[in-house]
Amino acid sequence: MEEFDYVVVGGGSAGCVVASRLSENPKVRVCLLEAGGAGNNWVVKAPMGIAIMVPSKTNNWAFQTVPQPGLNGRKGYQPRGKALGGSSAINAMVYIRGHRSDYDGWAALGNTGWSYNDVLPYFKKAENNEVVQDDFHGTGGPLNVAGIRTSNPFQEHFLEAGRQLQLPMNSDFNGAHQMGLGVYQVTQKNGERWSAARAYLEPNLSRPNLKVVTGAPARKILFDSKRAIGVEYSRDGKPESVRAKAEVIVSSGAFQSPQLLMLSGIGNAADLKGFGINVVHHSPGVGQNLQDHIDYAFSYRSKSLHNFGISFAGLRHLWKEIGRYKRDGVGMVTSNVAECGGFLKTDPNLAVPDIQLHFSVAMADNHGRNRHLGHGFGCHVCLLRPRSRGSVTLSSADPAAVPAIDPKFYDSPDDLEVMVKAFKITRRIMDAEPLAKWRTGDMFAADVRTDDEIRGALRRRSDTVYHPVGTVRMGTDELAVVDPQLRVNGVQGLRVVDASIMPTLIGGNTNAPSIMIGEKAADMIRAG
């Protein structure tokens, strides 16, 4: 069995950071196990490749939830990255950190060291921001943050619609204030996707003390009594093992980190015994506390070729845009589709924004899995701090089985009622003249008017906007799975480092916070 100081399970947004940072010390040997592939082909690098990956199994686990009563019994769709870079290899590249109050809230729950002032230096350490240089941003970090390079006029149409409604504008959602509408900054460099793998791993693959193994899904963590000593994984269908002298670090995401813990004997003892799994430590909080941003997508037809779509004219236009991209790294191929958006309040008395918009330069229908002839645009609106709490549980003791994912969308009636308000606010923007003049049809909401009709529309068409967190919750109470140092309670030599440790869902996209968690964890691990 090959031996390393640290074994990192999962080469996603946090795992890439941890493996890279720990291997900066040439005296430390690090092994990174990734279930997917290298994540370095054109479909990842070209931002527009999102349109291929998200609806399919290309670099994508393409999970489904269990049937959701709040969605009329539908199964939700949960795309998650399956490649080095994890979901940063397939996401919309929107660079958002969340609100200051999110992290101060974590600290108030007893998570010492996780306030906004504590985590801001790690956001800055990670970042090389081409757009903004001020006290809120970093330069020289591995993660490149840039402006959108499409020059799409629909950015201005969206912003002008907001101005006509006297909504505030915001040029930097990660600065002093989050409130307002604006154009998103993206994790791109020279018009290419800048995933966590490209930022942290690829420049350092020549390090002799860093071994990266792809196509290596983990089967279980190996224990000597209550100390993690290694990982068993599959390679070419055969079981292999690797030993960790210092620590095993699980960075497999909000669905697969709790699954791996449970497969390894850490979870609710009664449930584990029911699957014939030997219990290493009874930890009933594993897999609980799942939180995700529930989202509704408006969609409109348009004849403008500035919007993605399917037509002969559109194909000719796209061919020209591919040429521009190859020459200059600009234009339509650099689009993350969700180019604009913002943060608004459904109640002016709220202390912080409670909804987020993602304006889309394409028709949005079922995560891009339902294709329509013609062109169009749309707008997502998501609930930033849902009250509903779900779970991830085992469906089988087979490591290759998909876990049972139950977000319990709209389980809390309050979530549905806030989304009714969010629906109305978003439609006002979309109905404003600067956008309305470009549309030729409302695909899904033309006849939706009353509150009851809105509730029905929300249940028919809502789903995730891809931000699951919280299933290996950090805290100091009995149900917390990890402590504020991200060490798994009840055992030794084991940490979890990814979005699953978030005690509460942050107000925004979760990729940048996951990278921050990786940066902070690496420092905590090195400190001992």
From TrEMBL:
GO molecular function: choline dehydrogenase activity; flavin adenine dinucleotide binding
Flavoprotein among keywords: yes
SUPFAM superfamilies cross-referenced by the UniProt entry: FAD-linked reductases, C-terminal domain (SSF54373), FAD/NAD(P)-binding domain (SSF51905)
GO cellular component, one term: membrane
InterPro entries: FAD/NAD-bd_sf, GMC_OxRdtase, GMC_OxRdtase_N, GMC_OxRtase_C
Database matches in Pfam families: GMC_oxred_C (PF05199), GMC_oxred_N (PF00732)
Cofactor(s) the record lists: FAD
Binding site for FAD: 91-94
Domain Glucose-methanol-choline oxidoreductase N-terminal residues, every copy: 81-104, 253-267
Coiled coil (UniProt feature): none
Keywords, sorted A to Z: FAD, Flavoprotein
PROSITE patterns named in the record: GMC_OXRED_1, GMC_OXRED_2
GO biological process: glycine betaine biosynthetic process from choline
Family the UniProt entry places it in: Belongs to the GMC oxidoreductase family.
Record PANTHER family: CHOLINE DEHYDROGENASE, MITOCHONDRIAL, GLUCOSE-METHANOL-CHOLINE GMC OXIDOREDUCTASE
Protein name: Choline dehydrogenase
Lineage summary: Bacteria, Pseudomonadati, Pseudomonadota, Alphaproteobacteria, Hyphomicrobiales
